[in-house]
Design goal:
With about 350 residues, the protein is an alpha/beta fold. It is about 30% helix and about 30% strand. The protein has twelve helices and 16 strands. It is elongated.
């Protein structure tokens, strides 16, 4: 039982926030992973992680982004107990990852980047064997449920060597879910997978989240994080640069661009508009306005610009907008802190 809960008279786990049965509303306010002051220095002096503080909320999909060598895999390895930290602590569902290694580790399922499946083993046997590694009693009904949820049931008697790359990825997820973990780490889960299968995998991940599994995802595909994540974390050179709810991050750091197609071309901007974030394009036939969410909140968005254009006697015949993607934001953040 989680350290923040207590059992009622009939054995029901009660929510520590409202004293009722564990509810979805308050579950999201309940950290399932707490990382405090984490440092990792390897032999030879390379410091892979520096003063990492991070909290993962129960039931969320958290995307961890960063360039190659930023420390993503090292951080996952420390949380999963595969690598010992040099300093700091990791608490997994109430258990210290070092002191209470077994209890912490059995709560985690890890899907690694590498396909390390046993080529001559069947899907059913390899998934069942993974469950046994955690000391869990055989449970064919659970293995069947996992395989069906991942569209692997029809392949259960197939040897792994006969499967496609996408199916092998699914087997890795099935192995990670075999012991019924509460947390699932996906380290580049769709690397090398085609676009259609990638979207199928996204649906699988959402389904797991709906069943109460907390998902921590690392990915090079920014659209993957943009599509699925509740919160985004950015790591660079072993340090957490930013942690933010996805919607808030897009609003706060995402720029927008409004392009106006003018009735008559302009040779230059009128003096009254010189202070705005405006530029001319297409030989003066287009007026481009770049702004962000903060400007809108301060009343300096599109409506203000349109009023100024009317006052300046500038007419337009069409307009369209573009909003920066999470990839734009990520690239800017990494450049800014490099």
């Amino acid at each position: 039982m989680h350290r923040g809960c207590r059992r009622g008279a009939i054995g029901i786990v009660l929510c520590r926030y409202c004293a009722g049965p564990r509810c979805k509303e308050h579950a999201l306010n309940d950290p399932i992973i707490t990382i405090d002051g984490l440092n990792k220095t390897y032999e030879g002096g390379f410091q892979a992680l520096t003063r990492v503080d991070l909290t993962i909320q129960r039931g969320e999909i958290f995307a961890l982004l960063g360039p190659n060598g930023a420390g993503k895999t090292t951080l996952i390895s420390v949380v999963c107990g595969l690598v010992n930290p040099s300093e700091g602590h990791v608490i997994v569902d109430g258990f210290d990852s070092v002191r209470d290694y077994r209890q912490a580790r059995e709560r985690i399922g890890l899907v690694p980047q590498e396909l390390t499946n046993e080529a001559f083993e069947t899907v059913w046997n390899t998934v069942s064997f993974s469950r046994g590694l955690f000391g869990k009693a055989p449970n064919p009904a659970h293995i069947e449920k996992v395989l069906k949820s991942l569209s692997l049931w029809d392949k259960r008697h197939n040897r792994l060597m006969t499967l496609s790359g996408g199916m092998k990825r699914r087997v890795l997820i099935a192995k990670a879910l075999s012991h019924e973990p509460r947390i699932l780490f996906l380290d580049e889960p769709t690397a090398g997978v085609d676009v259609e299968l990638r979207r199928d995998m996204w649906d699988v991940v959402r389904g797991l989240r709906d069943e109460g599994v907390t998902i921590i995802l690392t990915t090079h595909y920014i659209e993957e994080a943009e599509e699925m994540a509740d919160r985004i974390g950015v790591i660079n050179r072993g340090e957490i640069v930013l942690v933010e709810e996805k919607a808030a991050l897009m609003k706060k750091l995402g720029s927008k661009q409004l392009t106006l197609q003018l009735h008559s071309p302009l040779a230059e901007l009128p003096p009254a508009l010189a202070q705005e974030a405006l530029s001319l394009a297409a030989d003066g036939h287009e007026l481009v306005y770049t702004y962000d969410g903060r400007q809108e909140e301060e009343g300096r968005g599109i409506s203000t610009l349109l009023t100024q254009l009317e006052q300046a006697g500038i007419g337009f015949k069409d307009l369209h907008t573009r909003q920066s993607s999470l990839e734009d934001i990520f690239v800017d953040l990494v450049k800014e802190r490099s």
